[in-house]
Amino acid sequence: MQQINLSQLAALLGGRLEGPGERVIKGIKGIEDAGPEDLAFLANPKYAKLLPACRAGVVLVRPGQEVPEGLAVIRVDDPYLAYAKVLTEAIRQPLKPLGVHPQAVVEASARLGRDVSVHALAYVGEGAVLGDRVVLHPHVYVGPGCRVGDDSVLHPGVVLYHGCLVGQRCIIHGGTVIGADGYGFAPDGQAYFKIPQIGIVQVDDDVEVGALCTIDRAATGRTWVQRGVKMDDHVHVAHNCVVGEDTLLVCQVGISGSTKVGKHVILAGQAGISGHLTIGDNAIVGPQSGVAANIGPGEVVSGTPPVPHKQNLRNLLALRRLPELLERVRGLEAQIKKMQGPQA
């Protein structure tokens, strides 16, 4: 991290400084580990108990947070977001484009923008287009007719099948496959006849896709991941799905074919979504939920089948008590039989 004084840091974040503006910060650490030249942040109030012993040069806190006397703070609306912005600036490196490595293969009909970096053993197919400042790490495959927008980065081992589109400022992590065939087979007696998948995958701007994800090409038309979607690792999006803007797909989420997921949705870890469904805008689906029916806008559900999240928590609590309740019922049955006496 390049050093910065507290006045500059507060101006960068649009925050209110309480402390010496000339103090210099050179690093970023957690509250417990930070020293006099480090920045720390307090996002979760339960860690406020650590502030009295904190030695950080400055701490990012919310406007109403109480702090010990003498501790320098910058008050911001969202310390976690402010921390992320500072960290982003701290690790920013000057652009040093590699160009095309001698051991990369770029077909003659491909078109490359300015300041690209195509690393060794990467491949760019016929008619493919790379925008300005695109980075392809080793073993990336960009198939014929693909397009990758400005400032996007494809990490090692990413596979982009023919005709697929990736927007600007996207980050695709290692081992992800975009555009493999959708899972389509027609029964043919005792066997199954493969249905050709002739569509594409379109990934819009500012999308991040984690490692080892799969986004299948459409049977016809497109599988569409819209602007700002963030996928964790090991996520599967099947053919002809639409994933709406700024949606979060957490680790091991699976979405079956032709499902439409709205904007600002959260699908928590290992949630499974059946095909041909609609998940409304701003809905939240809890972890390990199995969804087989539409979810309305703004609903917060969990469980299998999903029910309102608070109801599911009550159900789980009741389930934990079942053994105890069963023993009580058996005891009551025994008492009733005893009261009834011998049967005639």
Descriptive account of the structure:
With 344 residues, this protein is of the alpha/beta class. It folds into three domains: 4-91, MurE/MurF, N-terminal domain (Udp-n-acetylmuramoylalanyl-d-glutamate--2,6- Diaminopimelate Ligase, Chain: A, domain 1, 3-Layer(aba) Sandwich); 99-310, 3 Solenoid (UDP N-Acetylglucosamine Acyltransferase, domain 1); 311-340. Helix content is 15%, strand content 28%. It is built from four helices and 40 strands. The strands form seven sheets. The chain has a ten-stranded parallel sheet, with no helix packed on it. Strand 39 (300-302) and strand 40 form a beta hairpin. The chain is flat and about 95 Å long. The model has no long low-confidence stretch (mean pLDDT 95).
Provide a compact summary of the structure.
The chain is of the alpha/beta class and 344 residues long. It has 4 helices and 40 strands.
Structural class: alpha/beta
What percentage of amino acids are in beta strands? 25-35%
The share of residues in helices is 10-25%
Number of strands: 40
Strand order of the largest sheet: 9-12-15-18-21-26-29-32-35-38
Amino- and carboxy-terminal Cα gap: 90 Å
Please report the first level of CATH classification, the CATH class of the largest domain. Mainly Beta
CATH architecture of the largest domain: 3 Solenoid
CATH superfamily of the largest domain: Hexapeptide repeat proteins
Summed up, the domain count is 3
Mean pLDDT rating: 95
CATH topology of the largest domain: UDP N-Acetylglucosamine Acyltransferase, domain 1
- SS element count, helices: 4
Principal-axes geometry comes out as flat
Q: Which sheet architecture does the biggest sheet show?
A: 10 strands, parallel
Which regions have little confidence, pLDDT < 50, spanning 5+ residues?
none
